[in-house]
């Protein structure tokens, strides 16, 4: 299910869901598909060294998860994509399991395309992938079981990430719901997908999208502990929708969220960010330098935190 705004001008991306397009995950620049997904790649540069980590010739891999559903994962993924594209990086966005979207409807990958696509300097710098699609808005394993479609394995996700990392400076993998939502009958999760990627020698990290208000500290702490127990590094936290009129809890959490996560606050996206007239510019202004933006956490916290 999507966390962002309506995808009114979306392009289709590749899907490998067996009911729709069994072999399309390896294709690029496709413009149609019965699953509502295609292999749309939007800019490729040869000088994207900024996206490499520790001398690794493969691109950086970041899994985007959230403290729940509808917290702003898709708009955050789009923002990181846009800021990286603005920095001259080649970016791939992978949605392993899309739920709650019919075959002919735009999904989260198309929303990323709509929002971040204008930041792509040429037609080959952005690649969009969707590996499986299930029509009901449920956890991927439940949605797969009810639809009679195959579940998505952590190994299949890791293999696709490895392919994308060979040709891109940054690979973003957007999960469904929170970190421990089940993707298959064995109970494997987005965390298991990230571990499988690291098992291939790729330095995968996790970016956590959180809400700003009451209740966020507990689930942020639990997610951070779950990541630590699995040996997965938490890159940082992004607030997916900063309210127009923040309350006391919102303002206090600017200080408390990094403490709960044990990781830095790397951005604050305003409410309704997906409706911005110039989304790439908004993304750069709302994300920290670690995510290729210009946002200053200390300055924002000093201005908005509770006294």
Which key phrases capture this entry?
307 residues, alpha/beta, Rossmann fold, 8-stranded parallel beta sheet, 9 helices, 8 strands, 19% strand
Strand order of the largest sheet: 1-4-3-5-2-6-7-8
Low-confidence stretches: 1-55
Strand content: 15-25%
Oligomerization status of the protein chains: single chain
Q: In CATH terms, what is the fold-level topology?
A: Rossmann fold
- Number of discrete helical segments: 9
Secondary structure: helix percent:
25-40%
CATH architecture: 3-Layer(aba) Sandwich
State the order of secondary-structure elements, H for helix, E for strand.
EEHEHEHHEHEHEHEHH
Number of domains: 1
Structural class: alpha/beta
Mean pLDDT: 85
What form results from the Cα inertia axes? Answer: globular
* N→C terminal distance: 37 Å
How does the major sheet shape up?
8 strands, parallel
- What's the CATH C level? Alpha Beta
Rg, nearest Å: 18 Å
Number of strands: 8
Q: So, the CATH homologous superfamily?
A: P-loop containing nucleotide triphosphate hydrolases
């Amino acid at each position: 299910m999507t966390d962002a705004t309506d995808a009114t001008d979306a392009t289709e991306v590749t899907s490998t869901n067996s009911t729709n397009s069994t072999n399309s995950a390896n294709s690029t620049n496709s413009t149609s598909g019965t699953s509502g997904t295609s292999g749309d790649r939007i800019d490729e540069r040869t000088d994207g060294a900024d996206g490499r980590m520790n001398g690794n010739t493969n691109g950086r891999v970041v899994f985007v998860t959230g403290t729940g559903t509808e917290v702003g994962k898709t708009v955050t993924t789009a923002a990181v994509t846009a800021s990286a594209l603005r920095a001259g990086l080649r970016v791939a966005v992978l949605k392993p399991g899309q739920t709650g979207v019919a075959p002919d409807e735009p999904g989260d990958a198309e929303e990323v395309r709509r929002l971040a696509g204008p930041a792509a300097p040429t037609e080959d710098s952005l690649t969009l992938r969707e590996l499986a699609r299930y029509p009901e808005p449920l956890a991927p394993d439940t949605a797969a079981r009810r639809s009679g479609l195959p579940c998505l394995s952590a190994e299949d996700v890791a293999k696709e990430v490895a392919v994308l990392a060979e040709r891109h400076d940054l690979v973003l993998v957007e999960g469904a719901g929170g970190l421990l939502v089940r993707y298959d009958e064995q109970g494997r999760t987005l965390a298991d997908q990230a571990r499988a990627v690291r098992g291939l020698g790729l330095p995968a990290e996790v970016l956590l999208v959180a809400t700003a208000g009451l209740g966020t500290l507990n689930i942020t702490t639990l997610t951070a502990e779950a990541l630590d127990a699995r040996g997965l590094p938490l890159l940082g936290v992004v607030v997916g929708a900063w309210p127009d009129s923040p309350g006391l809890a919102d303002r206090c959490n600017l200080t408390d969220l990094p403490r709960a996560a044990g990781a830095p606050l790397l951005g604050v996206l305003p409410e309704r960010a997906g409706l911005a007239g110039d989304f790439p510019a908004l993304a750069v202004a709302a994300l920290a330098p670690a995510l290729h933006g210009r946002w200053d956490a200390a300055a924002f916290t000093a201005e908005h935190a509770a006294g």
